[in-house]
Amino acid sequence: MSQFFEVHPDNPQARLLKQAAQLLHKGGVLAVPTDSSYALVCHLDDKAAADRLRRIRGVDDKHHLTLLCRDLSELASYARVDNRQYRLLKLGTPGAYTFVLEASKEVPRRVSHPSRKTIGLRVPEHRALQELLALHGGPLLATTLIPPDDTEPLNDAHEIRERFEHELAGVIDAGACPLAPTTVIDLTPMDSGDEPAVLREGAGPLSALGL
Q1: Which residue from 86, 144, 188, 192 has the least number of CB within 10 angstroms?
Q2: 92-140, pLDDT tens digit by residue?
Q3: In terms of pTM, does the model score above 0.90?
Q4: Max Cα separation, the chain?
Q5: Contact partners, residue 24, CB within 8 Å, separation at least 6
Q6: Is the Cβ–Cβ distance between 204 and 97 less than 8 Å?
C-alpha cells in the first residue's frame, strides 16, 4: 500500500517530505501536487522507475516526459539553451509552463523523445514540490497524472491513493491543486531563427512571455 503524506500547503513538514524523498531514491513512483495538476514523478536516473511511471500512466516511449527542476539554472544544465530561449525561460519560471528544448547530454537518451532528442522542462511554483525537489537534490522525471482511460487529470489525493495504492510508493497531499494543464511551448524552432511554437495553451498566460 502506498504511503500517504499530508503536508501543509504553505509550510510543508520537512520530516514528511524527507520520507517521500527517500521513497524516490529507492525507486518509487510518487503522486505529487503541482501548480497545474497532480503529476507522477520518479528518479531521473532509475530506468525501472521510469518504466513503471510510463506503465501507470499508460504511455509509450514516444510520449514526451517532463523534467521538474528547482530553478532556471538547473533547467539550463539539462537542455541546450541560447540567449533568446533563455530570456523566454526567465519570464516563465517558476510557473505553469512546460518548455520543449533539445536535451543535453545530462539527460539519459531513454527519457528524451526517441526521434527528436528533445525533453520537456519546467520549474513549478508549488511550495511542497519545490521543497521535495530540494530534498531530492536534482530534477524529477514527471508526467501529468491522467489515468490510462481518462482524459482529465486526477486532483484528489485520497482518490489517487485509492486507485493506485498498489502501484505508487506514495502520495503527497497538500490540498487540491488547479486542474488547468501547463502551457506547452516548443522552443526548438528558435534554434533556426523561427518563432517558438505554442503546442498547448493552458494555465500559463502567453502574454507573460510576450507571445
Answers
A1: 192
A2: 999 999 999 998 888 877 777 666 788 999 999 999 999 999 999 999 9
A3: yes
A4: 51
A5: 30, 41, 42, 43, 49, 136, 140, 169
A6: yes
- Identify the structural domains of the chain with CATH numbers, from first to last: 3-201 (3.90.870.10)
Query: Which CA distances in Å does 12 have to 50, 122, 124, 127?
Result: 26, 21, 16, 8
